[in-house]
Amino acid sequence: MKADIGLIGLAVMGQNLALNIARKGYSVAVYNRTAERTKKFVEERVKSEKVLPAYSIKELVNSLSRPRKIILMVKAGQAVDDMISELLPYLEKGDLLIDGGNSHFADTDRRLSELAKEGILYLGMGVSGGEYGALHGPSLMPGGTREAYSLVEKILVEIAAKTEDGPCCTYVGDGSAGHFVKMVHNGIEYSIMQAIAEVYDIMRKVMKLSSEKIGEIFERWNREELASFLMEISYKIMSWKDEETGKPLVELILDKAEQKGTGKWSTQVALDLGVPAFSFGASVFARAVSYYKEERQKMAELYKPNMKTAENIAVEDLKKTLSLAYFLSYSQGVWLIHEASKSFKYNVDSLEVLRIWKGGCIIRSKMLDFLRQLLKNSQENITFLNDERARNFVEERLPHAIKVTNLARSSMIPTPSLNACLDYLFSLMTENLPANLIQAQRDFFGAHTFQRIDKPGTFHVEWQPLE
Ligand code: 2AM
Fold it and tell me: Which pTM does this prediction carry?
């Protein structure tokens, strides 16, 4: 009996994905570099599922039915290349490797073309939903060739999360489209997480609300327009008590945010492609500055920022602000995917991407239905903003967002994601930006030339005599 599929890398994501596949009735052969982990997994977590442990790459490959299909769930970076090199001598033309880690899309493109030369099929697949999603139904974003996808489509669709709009798996596009879309998913995730954190900061510092009270508000919001996974976990976090002290655990957690790189990558590529993903960058920087705890302590002592407290701010203002930030975060992300799809010839269908983000993944939210309607109305409307219904949505929320960010400013509370979202929006709404002065300055010191509004052509002025 040969196994239907193989899986390498039995850290939490790999274990749960293997169990998910096995629970759908497939036989899965598993391998991990450190044998101990494989043993432990099989002993402790595998019950009646058809999971076959392998203790060498050769054993793993030999246990698979042809064409072989192997999912890699190893650490992004060198480990993926190492595993591919180890596997290659045992693989045959037509076999398929699927990288389900958070690989950089450029690595995925490189591996795709290297493996194509060997006749090995390859998919770069974004997997979102954390360990819970991996076990009960993740959002899957596979990209590569259609031929490769068709070999595993049935399995992937079966293990993915399900919504009323179908399973959360689709062929995302050519080349590294899958990993690219997952990376942008994480950029949106950074932006929304930061926006929620900023709203929380205002609630505790300006409104003096307790964690429990904030939890109640978040719980209510999660039943309304902000219904989303990130809102859900935030209200659960707020009401979580530390066993030792009885205090809300969130109040005991050190305010130093870590990152693994996907938010940074999405910002880097936004810079490369010239897409104004303001709040992606702001959210990465917000994590960066949080890391400087000791410096911040010293500065706080030196400057003693003057917190205002008795401001006339309502919970409703914060809800509308956050809802606008969600909307604008998705807007920046879909714009970025659109530009990448053109530049890298991915052929991504953004409507499908929004559909598979509806379930299983970290940025799933009720708002995605509204965004899909807007995009359905006009496929050109990649920012969602160019639509009457979008304008109504934005106009209803904007006064609240302005009030909230003004209050944060006057209280010296940093709100980088909220501000960046608004700057993104305001920039797009503004017919005349001061870029005319930038152009004049560039031409002044570097003879970079400029265009004029009153006649065609390229111009340069001798702003100052050279000699
Ligand atoms: P390990 O249990 O042997 O450390 C997440 O780190 C997963 O990636 C783990 O399953 C880990 O295996 C695996 N991994 C990390 N680096 C690896 C490498 N260079 N080769 C193979 N697997 C690796």
Answer: 0.96
